[in-house]
Batch of 4 targets.
Target 1
Amino acid sequence: MALEWAALGAMTTAEAIILILLTLPGRQGLQKGLIAVARTSLQPLLAVVPFALFLLLEIYWKYEHLPECKGSTCNVAEQDRHSKSVFKSQRNGILVLGALLFYWVLYRVTAMLVSLERISNQLKNLKPSE
């Protein structure tokens, strides 16, 4: 089970790195290359969406079927295990939501940069004709 969370973490990290590189100021010389990398990485990173939704459903299922541990029926070890399980589910939920948010932001920033590049090319084409 830890492998799927490691894979989601790796995809989220890749999304974050590409997003940071795209939004750094002073990257004029690398702009076209970074946009091309971002555009080509969007399609493989789209796999994060169904994968994250599946993992979110898994978190929900585990939360709904979590054994109750209340009162004197539980000893200290069971209460500790229960609280660790809840903490781990919350952490994994934040990772899933972060992965989905990073993908959406990466998609929107890439689309915005592509449209800005297209508009600047149109302006360059209009200036010499005037």
Target 2
Amino acid sequence: MPRGKVTMKNDYYAILKLNRNKIRCMKTNEIKAEIKKAYRCLAMRWHPDKNPDNQEEATIRFQEISNAYEVLVDDKKRQIYNIDSCDTSSDRWYHMPMKCEKCEKILPDLVAFLQHGMYYKHPQKQR
């Protein structure tokens, strides 16, 4: 598994054409189904037997796709990959929780509740 900066060459989510943040918001069985669906589609497209005129590139791509699937479909391997593959060149730290829209919507209310206790009333919801 790659360590450090993620590039297109070793970004398993990009290889399988999956949105990393969307995957984060799904349940485990939904994640596996989405990964399996993406794998099957790309494996059929890049299988060496389906590409007789471009067999060398197809073999390389098929191996990349198979490696990505093997890591991402296994929960423990995916968790390790997510932690090890954070992109430190930007503000995107993928191994941190709370990287989905649902979480970002409730986070301000949660923080305010924790700061003010159960007597906190949201300023926009006081009507």
Target 3
Amino acid sequence: MGVPILRLPVVALKVLVDHFNDVELVVVFLLSKRADWFLKVCGKKNVSFFNLSDSEIRRFRVFVILELLLLESRRQGKLPEWHFKLRCSVSNGLDISISCKHFTVSIHFEALENIERFEGARRNLKIGDSFVPVVTTGENDGVEEIHTFWNTDTYGMIVFMDYFKNNFNLSIEQLNFATNRSRAIRTIVTHINSTQTVVKNVLVGCSPPISEDDFKFVLENVSATDYFVSGLTLSQNFKFNGTIRSKIIDIMNARWFTIQNVLESVESQEIHVYGNYTKDELRTFLEEWKAGKLPKLKELTLGTKESPLYVIEGYERWEGRCIQCESERSYSIKIKGLGGCHGCVYTEDRKGYFMSIHGN
């Protein structure tokens, strides 16, 4: 039976809290506003989860870390300088990972109607003004998982995204897609677009692949600021007439990403597209590149089956040395570009040719 410490006289309470360590004080401190007041009366005025050391934080179970993070961040109205990152995954399940220099906590979102399928410790979690049912599994096996339950799993993910965006202006560090759950994809993407949530990196996986319609919906409605990568294999009929504005574009199996798509990627600093561009397409790109139409572009790789000599025929050669061009490549020809940049067409592992662009 627990001791009702908040009912103790102040003098007795002072003696008791003097024997608490920092971790125990934090737990008591976050029980209620009344507990907060009692600790301050007892002279403990700087009690905070955010003041704990790394070793002290790691003594908590994962659920307790999440609980303390949500309670303390709401109380203080800010996050500490712990380099927090929010990663969201829309796959066969919906998950959010909250990581910082002290811990990583993963939250799984489930439909409330499925709660009886999960065996584990049942609790409630407070996020904002709401209490959410939780089942933590694997506590005794050392692989603790947090499952939260909502009217729909997509609604749960949206609540967490909004909590960190609206209260702390925390962007989404990484957004992953790998599922055939079209409704989940479109619900999450529509919300991100309508709330102008910043997404730094978008990764579209291929196992299981999302549909072509959903992929186009992602392309049209989510703009990754830093990095966009796709490993999907799409049909020859797939077309995309928009622009990817990420600093880095990395696309495998990229028959759909035309040379016009490349030329319209004027915000990108790196473009790596493993398609099969023709001689005419590559020469069209070279003309635009040499004319300065992609001023931010620093690195580019385009796949082709065309011979290097045919691609760069008539262009002025560049005779400088570039370790990046020559590294592990059996054959390369380099040409001059604008402002000290140069281009290179080379073979790699006898698999085909690649055209590379980079600056000095």
Target 4
Amino acid sequence: MKSTLAPGIRLITSFSRDSWYRGFILLLTFLFYTAYHLSRKPISIVKSMVVIRRKDQRILNVDMLNSLICILPTDQDNYQTLFGVLDNSFLVAYAIGMFFSGIFGERLPLRYYLSFGMLMSGLFTCLFGLGFYWNIHSLGYYAFIQVMNGLMQTTGWPAVVACVGNWFGKGKRGFIMGVWNSHTSVGNILGSLIAGVFVSSAWGMSFIVPGLIIASTGILCFFLLVEKPEDVNCSPPQHHVSDDSVFFVVFRVLQGVVEFSLCLLFAKLVSYTFLYWLPLYISNVAHFDPKQAGDMSTLFDVGGILGGIMAGLVSDYTGGRATTCCVMLVAAAPMLFLYNYIGQRSLGTTIGMLLVCGGLVNGPYALITTAVSADLGTHESLRGNSRALSTVTAIIDGTGSIGAALGPLLAGLISPTGWNNVFYMLITADVLACLFLSRLVYKEALGWCGRVPRVRG
């Protein structure tokens, strides 16, 4: 009697060797960038512990603030400015470093570059937490650690996008990268949950544990990452092809880079303001304790996962990356307004509004930093130079990171005047992000009308 293969083995053998390698690289880079974001999140959870609400009275947790910095505020609202210094020490260093990171990413082996970046990020994240156990009360120490960590974190995004771009073609890139880009939200969720476990007892562990995790993934990267399909005799993907002259295509690509970069600046301003200030906002307005506020803030990231996947699917089907981003940004503005005014009326409303706002805010951000960057970076005009993807990604995300630095800074300055003004600032940023995509949206609309050639994703 002829033997038959077990169902599991049949499933395994139904995929080609190339497919297994591509799936492995996708999973591996997903884990890498999850670890990057996981290690960024603790400070937003720790800062929510500084203010505790009891019977609607805000009480400054002086002991905890004193364990972070030596300069205690004379005004209870001043703690927001002090934490703004720490936030922006990281974010400004990240924004500046990102422009140089793409250059290094082009010239260095991605495996070494990523491994080094994750190990050093782990080191500086741990050093921040060790300040608790070493009884360090110096704002300068923590600010310096934040600056160094911001520089080390720039190694991640250009390198992982370049690696994924090397392995995947343009066909279903929006959907694939929409799913893959959920690592950002997954990292934020895990970072919130891990930090929340220790925040009320020994906040130092809120940083040390994520630091050890990202350092471990750096070791994993060194031993397992395969940078290009050709390195293991797999077939390279099919990238974008154009019949236009190189000069005009290069000019068009550069135009796209500038417009999407400026859009991302304002989109990331909104996203990172939520990343750094949402737990504190929930704690202040909804009167949750720090752990509950941190747990509740993860719903924004859950919505971001769904929004990123939806943006990728829609843009693949329609071929309209810019239009997809613009529609979601337009819808986000009124939803942010509603969340501020009715989002805390009940638990169900809070959950629903956080999910919707997370999807609409993070969907365009996810699409631009992944599929759009990869589309532009692997364009035929770049003559098949896959390393150029690292530079294009760094330019787009570096510009966006300027917004990431401005958002939390502005929130820290504006929040003492009332949270309403913070949300007006976020809504304005959403509108400006839409305006920078207007030319590209118009061009895509002409394509749908048949007046110019259109290529689906």
